[in-house]
Amino acid sequence: MHSPDLMAGAENLLFRCGGLTAGDQLLVVCEDAANGYYDAEITGAIVDCAQQNRIKTAVRTLPFEPMGPLVPEELKSAMKSADCTLFLSRTGDQIRFDAGMEDVRPIMSYALDAGMLASGFGRANYTGFVELKNAVNTLLANAGHIHVTCPLGTNFAGPGAAFPPSGATDVSITRFPMSVFAPVPAQGFSGVLVQDGFLVGTGSKFYEPYGCDLREPLTIRFENNRLTGFDGHPMDVHCAQMHYEKVGRMFGLDPLSMHSWHAGIHPGCAYTTPAQSNFERWSGSAFGNPRLLHFHTCGHYAPGEISLNVLDPTIRVDGIAIWDAGVLRADLLPGGTEILEQYPCIKAVFDAPARHVGQGANGRLSAG
User: In what order do the strands lie in the sheet with 25-30?
Assistant: First the structure.
C-alpha cells in the first residue's frame, strides 16, 4: 500500500499536470532503477494511481544514453498515440529543448523518488505553481532593471527579461513539478557571479568528468553572452579554463558562451545529501528551490553544457527584493497574494520552505 501523501503526489501529476481522465492512455517511459537516478517505488505509485482511476497505462524502459537521447521511431509513434507520456528518465530532460517534442509535449518528472513525490514538492498544486511561474515571467518581462547579488559576492545586473518573441515558452516538455521561470537571456546583463564548490553539467549530456571541484569560491566575470575571465585560487582558475576548453572541444561549442539564467520558484524542492555525492542527480533536481539560481553556459543554447550555480541569491526587480537571500517573496509578485490565498497547499510550502539544497557540512555548495 502506498501512503496517502504519495498517492496525492501521483494525483497531482496525473490529473492537474497531465490532464488525464478515465479511459485515457498513459505511456510511462522509465530509466532502469539500477542506474540510481529514479527509484522503482515512484513508478509503481504512479502506475497504481493511474490504474485505480481507470487510465490505461503502458510502461516502457528506455536505455539511458549519456551523450544524448536516442528515442526510437517506434517509441515516438507510441508517444504520439498516447494521451500523455511521462518520463521517469533523464531522457526526458535531454529532449526538453527539442522543438520536435512540441506537439507531444511529454511530462518530465523532477521528483526523482517516492519521497520527493510525497513531499510538498510533489503535492503542492501544480496549476497554482504554473500561475506563479507566469507571474514571475510577467514581472521580469515588464521590469526596467534587474539586479542580482549573493552573500559570496555575486553582483550582476541588466534590463528587463528579453524573452523570445514567441513568449516565455522555454521548453518543449511539461515540467513536473513546475519549479523554475523561463530562462532570462543573458544579453544585456553583465557583472560577476561567484561559483562555490564546483562546476557541473546541465543534464543535456553526461560527460566525464561531469563535475569539476573548486578549492575556493571562483569569481566569473561576464558581459552579455560571454564569460570574460576567472579570478580566484590559481588552481581553480586553471581548472575552470581547462574544463571549459575540454567541454567546448568535446561538443564543438564556443566554450565561453553564456545563454541565459533563471532561479527556482518551488520552496518544497529539497535535496538532502551533498551535491558532490552525486553531481548528476543533484543537477537534475535541486535547481527548483529558490535558494538556487543557475546560468546556462558553454553553448549558445539552453541549457548549454556547464551550469554555474549561485546559492541564496537576492534578485531585485526595479529595486524590490523579490528573492531575498534565497527566499522568494511570492506575495510581492503580481497576483501572488491571491495565488497563495487560493492554494493553501502552496502557501504551506512557502511558510515552511525546504532549506536543504545539496550543501555540504559547511553550509555551502561543497562537500566540506
Answer: 56-61, 25-30, 84-88, 107-109, 174-176
pLDDT-derived band at 368, boundaries 50, 70, 90 = low
What letter does residue 182 receive in the DSSP assignment? Answer: P
Q: Which residues contact 1 (CB under 8 A, 6 or more apart)?
A: none
Residue 360 CA to residue 368 CA, distance in Å, equals 5
Q: All 3 cell numbers of residue 16?
A: 492537474
Check whether 313 has a pLDDT greater than 50. yes
Cβ atoms within 10 Å of 152's Cβ, excluding its own? 17
DSSP secondary structure code for residue 145 in this structure = -
Contact present, 154 and 310 (Cβ < 8 Å): yes
> Maximum CA pair distance of the chain?
61
Which three cell numbers mark 123? 503535492
CA geometry: angle 130, 131, 136, nearest 5 deg: 95
pLDDT in tens, 15-44: 999 999 999 999 999 999 899 999 999 999
Residues 262 and 180 sit within 8 Å (Cβ to Cβ): yes
CA distance linking residue 191 with residue 222, whole number of Å? 6
- Residue spans of beta strands (DSSP E) within the chain: 25-30, 56-61, 84-88, 107-109, 146-149, 155-158, 174-176, 184-185, 190-195, 198-200, 211-213, 218-223, 226-231, 258-263, 292-297, 306-311, 314-317, 320-324, 327-328
As a whole number, mean pLDDT of residues 250-279 equals 96
Question: Per-residue pLDDT tens for 55-91?
Answer: 999 999 999 888 877 788 898 899 999 999 999 999 9
Mean pLDDT computed over every residue of the chain: 94
The residues pairing with 321 across neighbouring beta strands, listed in sequence order, are 316
